[in-house]
Amino acid sequence: MNVLPPEKTTADQASFEGLISAMKIAIIGFGKIAHDEHAPAIAESGTFSLVAAVSRGKGPAGLPCFQDVETLLHSGPDFDAVSICLPPQVRFDAAAAALSAGKHVLLEKPPGATLGEVAQLGRLAEANNVSLYTSWHSRHAPGVEKARIWLSGRTVQRFHLSWCEDVRIWHPDQQWIWQPGGMGVFDTGMNGLALAEAVLPQSFALKSARLDIPENRFAPIAAGLDFTCTDGTGLRADFNWSHSGADHKALIAETAEGMLILDKGGERLVINGQCLIDEPQREYAAIYNRFSHLIAAGESDIDTTPLAHVADAFMIGERKTVEAFED
User: Fold this and answer.
1) Domain containing 78: what range?
2) 320 is catalytic
3) What is the pLDDT of residues 68-77, one digit of tens each?
């Protein structure tokens, strides 16, 4: 569902801008992603004002910080919306409480630990007449739209997605990612699947998978997935959290007209050897712009497709036990 506000007159636009500029927002789960991405994007948005946070650690400087969602809702400052950046295993209760209290909710990816609980949140949002947004930040990377347009209508012979990084850099000492519901390498690998969904001209479905699970963990450290697109084209996806050196996050499409490479997580687009885009990401600025428009339109955007691909991998994937992983 991709709904934007209807076209407005000048007077309507002024009213819309006044509405969204007055939106007060709280962050629930003020960890690394909230500190590095959400808080700066909110500060620069011009449409939201950060007024509070929930964190068991250090919160944003100069703002009230609460130990739990219930205390925020009952004793915190007045606010209109929340961004939920908690681990997926505990995200549902916080989101349900906020929606039930009439707050608009933005969910950091993945939107939940299960598909069923995200569907239930959608029903709660509708019942309480508020917006729910399951955000996938990689879809807003600089090269995505031009890559999508170039591939549209072309015959693709092969796709390959690679999402490889060092977990010790991106998730230092974060034990929840290895627990049931934490999803392991798919926590970041879903960014690649979301990017592929945004770029590829056809949808794709999983046919087989291999999950490499350390003997002392519940979730995979690496995985290989084979998909088939609706036109029969194959898509191979490789994920690896024990990668050394620079991150390698790229989608490659081989066509009769040449090769497209969308790498650096979508920041750089190269077609037939020519670099067309190489820009730093502003994905979270785009997320908050989208969220403000959804609220103004009275709409939700609930997309669980990348999460569904991961659920399929856990359902049909072959599990291989590999050596223990220690932080």
Assistant:
1) 10-137+284-302
2) no
3) 999 999 999 9
